[in-house]
Structures are given as structure tokens and as C-alpha cells.
Amino acid sequence: MGLELEQGKEIDYRMVLKAMSVDEKKELMVLTNHHGLLMLSAHLCLIAILAYGQSVSEGLVRFCFLVGQGAVMCFLFCAMHEASHGTAFRTKWLNKFVTNAVGLLLFMGAKWFTYFHNAHHRHTNDTARDPELAGGKPDNWLGYLWYLSGIMIWVQSFAALVKNAFATPQADYIPQSGKHLVQKEARLMLVFYSIIFTALLATAAEALLYYWLLPLLCGQPFLRLFLLAEHTDCPHDDDMLNNSRTIYTNPVLLALSWQMPYHTAHHSFPAVPFHKLARFHAFIHHHVKQSSQGYGVFHHKMIAQYRKRS
């Protein structure tokens, strides 16, 4: 990018955006279909390869393929996240389709998630208004392991689905105009699951278990490890350069997560599509205030904190 901000100067993300020209912002916000389709195709192909590995293996080898498949399936959440922003594809219906399809796979209402996530962006790390903080973040060994297990995530997802289906949603982050949409979505999802589970239990119960449910259960801890690093222990202020963390990681994980390790860049300018986050990060990286040299380093520090407390 043509404009460089002065290194060492204390700035916030608003100053970063203000320092950019209108043309630079417009260029960063240009959407495409081919980047998203290529990424989604690669993601789905990897799931298919791991599922095939499951089908031709036994014992421990099959279990490893199952866990790998589950981890990659759970990381489809990143595709859902990008599509919910409307930035995965230029074509609006593609964004909507992917958000809904992945939401069905992961037992997460697309409309509900979009409202939830929009509130997270508006009130990032605000302990009173960020819905991601409603359940709290782990502050000891037991909480850390419980969080990584993903059990509470599944409990919360199913509870939200059932509650939204049978009662008018009351969450503050759902606007009045969207409550009936969230309820309708939850009801349709329950009908879908009733039909698909009844059909599969009668005809392909083993496939249902080994290629959908068990992989998701076993893969969820890998997604939890990834997501925990985004904001945990970041200051509770309104500067996106300070309340969101960038993780410097390998190209494979960057691709699998749709570039979300550039999380500071994403929160500072959510309209930037995933395939241009690296470019925007290069513009702001001198001013990123929370970062880690890899997920291993981040979690090592977390564990060291728990050891000190205990």
C-alpha cells in the first residue's frame, strides 16, 4: 500500500483507517467469487480425503483420520464466519448459502450467529455487551480443559436452538425485527434434523456416527484452541488494535482458517475479504498491540499462568 504510518507512534484503529485513502479502502474491499470458491473447494476436498482415509482404515489409523476429518470439518466455521460478513463471495446468495449450509452441519443457526457475531464486533471484549464473553473465559486448569473439550459449546448451541424454536428469542443482540426470523430458522432446523436423523438412523446409522457426529465431537477441541487465542487476556477497551490478537502461524493453518489469524486486521476493518487480510495486516502490523508467535506460544503462556495461580 502506498501510505505508511509512522512507526512507534501510539495510534488506534480509527487513526489507521483515517490515514488510508478512499481508493486504498475501496481496493481492499473488492469482493470476488473465485477466491472463496477455490478455498471452499479445497476445504471440502480435504474433508473428503480424510473421510476416505477413514473408510479404508481400521483401529488407531482410522481414529486418526476421524479426528483429522473432524478438525477440518469444525474449521468450516471459519468459512461460515467469513460468509456471514458477506465477504467470502461477491455474489450475495453464495454467502447466504454457505452460512446456512455450514450452520446446519455445525448445529448453529445462521441468522442467530450473524446477530451474535455482529454484536461481538460492535462490542469486542466489552464484558457487559460482548456476547462471546457471556460464558466467561477459562482462568484455571479445570476451566481451560473444560473449554477445550467443547462440551459446553455443544450444550449452549443445542439449548439456544431449542429455546429459540419454542420461545421468542430474548437475547439483547437480536433486534426486534429479527426475532421472528431467528425463531423460524430454529424451527426449520429442528424439522430438518428430525427428518435427516430419522432417515439416517434407519438406513445409515454408522455413517451418521462416524462421518458426522463423532468427527465433530473429536474435532471441536482443535477449533477451541484456535478461537481461544483471538481475544483472551486482551484489554477490555474499544481499540481493535489492542482488544484483538494476531497470531503468526504457518500457511496451512492460515488457509484452513480462512486467514483469521490476522484477527486484529479483521476486527479493525471487517469489510476486507479474507484473501486481502494479509495485505491489510502488512499495512498495520507495526501498530498491532497484541500478537503471538504461534498458537503453541500463546497456549504455553496460558498454561504458565495457570501454574502460577495454582
Question: What does this protein structure show overall?
Answer:
The chain is mostly helical. It has one domain. It has 16 helices and 2 strands. It has helices at residues 13-19, 22-28, 34-55, 59-74, 76-84, 92-105, 110-122, 141-149, 151-166, 176-203, 205-228, 240-243, 251-256, 263-268, 277-284, 295-309; strands at residues 246-247, 291-292. It has a two-stranded parallel sheet with strand order 1-2. The termini are far apart. The mean pLDDT is 93.
How many β-strand stretches?
2
Helix content: 55-70%
Shape: globular
Which stretches are poorly predicted, pLDDT < 50 over at least 5 residues? none
User: Nearest-angstrom radius of gyration?
Assistant: 20 Å
Termini separation comes to 47 Å
Instruction: Estimate nothing, just give the exact number of structural domains.
Output: 1
Q: Mean of the pLDDT scores? A: 93
Give the biggest sheet.
2 strands, parallel
Helix-strand sequence = HHHHHHHHHHHHEHHHEH
What is the overall number of helices? 16
Overview features:
two-stranded parallel ribbon; mainly alpha; 310 residues; 66% helix; globular; 16 helices
Quick recap:
The protein is an all-alpha fold and 310 residues long. The protein has helices at 13-19, 22-28, 34-55, 59-74, 76-84, 92-105, 110-122, 141-149, 151-166, 176-203, 205-228, 240-243, 251-256, 263-268, 277-284, 295-309; strands at residues 246-247, 291-292. Strands 1-2 form a two-stranded parallel sheet.
